[in-house]
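Minutes, project check-in
Item: structure for the 158-residue chain
Input as provided by the requester:
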Amino acid sequence: MKKLWILIVASVMASCNLFVSKEKKTEQLVNQELQHIDWETVDEYPLFYSCDETASKSDQKSCFENELIHHLTATLKQFEYTVNPDIDSKIYVVFLIDKKGKITVIDIEKDKSIGDQMPEFDGIIRQSLKNLPEIAPALKRGIPVDAKFGIPIVLNTK
């Protein structure tokens, strides 16, 4: 009878260990996979609907950048700026395109004197980005993700 109990207890313990080990194996596989994912890049860039979603990643990036620059340039050309040529006329706009394709300006890095000479500049940039055509979000493994970007703007002082 003792041998039967030992056999029953051993089989119950072994069957429990099988379930635990499957869960642990799955968890280990998931953790290994997560470690190999490059979280700093996206698989597909955000796209304007005028861009080709079947194009290569580099072509998608070029289309996204060109559309963005074209839109910002067209907006900025509508205004006349007077900037002292002795100041640093480089501006860096950091923005986020969220999982739904909504754009949010995170920061506008510029020389203080530009802010003094053109206090409306930040508002113009923010409004220009809000008025962009609809954008499909960036994708990582087929899932929409938030993506942060920066774009330099150089004011022509000539």
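Outcome recorded: The helical segments are 2-36, 57-77, 112-117, 121-130.
No further action items on this chain.
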